[in-house]
Design a protein that fits this description.
By secondary structure, this protein is α+β, with helices and mostly antiparallel strands. The chain contains four helices and 17 strands. The protein starts with a helix and ends in a 21-residue tail after the last helix.
Length: 267
Amino acid sequence: MFLWMLFPLSFVAVTHALQVVERVEGEDVTLVPEFSGEAEEILWKIQEDKLVELVGGRLPHYYQLEGRAEAQLPTGNLTIRRLTGNDSNRYTAEILIGSTYTYSAHELRVLPPRPTVRYVIGQEGVNLFCVSPVSVSFVWRDGGGNVLAETANFTASIEKLRNKTDVTCVVSNSHYSNNRTLQLDLPPEGGESSGGHTAVWVPILVVMLLVIVVGVSGLAYIYRDSIRSWSSGFSAVPRDPVQLERTKTITPEEPFCDGNDGQAQHG
């Protein structure tokens, strides 16, 4: 038991300004108490409930968060690991130094992670998607703060969003919220979007590419077949046997016959 509880009138109280600390769910945090001198005893509280008691020469005694909280003398630093939204609270260190009792308070705010947002323009309108890695509630708002939907994903008509340049997905845990804004690039009335968010162009481009590939392949086949036919026709023309005979080369040793009297003449 702390000595100041037995003799409260013999101790002086010193209070430091409140420290505000923000972290995101899943992260770790270390709360550093403010005091001067060598601490004899430190009691960390969550609101008015004991969290951990540190007394010189003894092991820390945890009342809450055992397994996730860690504190040691002489610094008195309190580390909480794997934060959740429910860890948001006021943490106060009561430090005993001689006859002085120092209070060091910390406001811990644990925010949900910023969500991932995207949109796709489909046949039924604009499909908006908001994804969070932790359990949260979702609210979509336009640039003026007006609520568009209270779900993670929803579909809105292009006409409804045409005059809006951005929308924001707000995610909230049990205490705090976080958000991410999505810039919209919607087609004007009677036009098409200049952004890369539509799913309509993807199948069109694929079909066009297939048509080009098939067309080029067909032309190549026709050209190759024509060349083959022309080559075959040229090499298959028969030659006249008589003409072949008449074009035979005559050597000086061979007699020449004119074909009329069958007698050989020598030149």
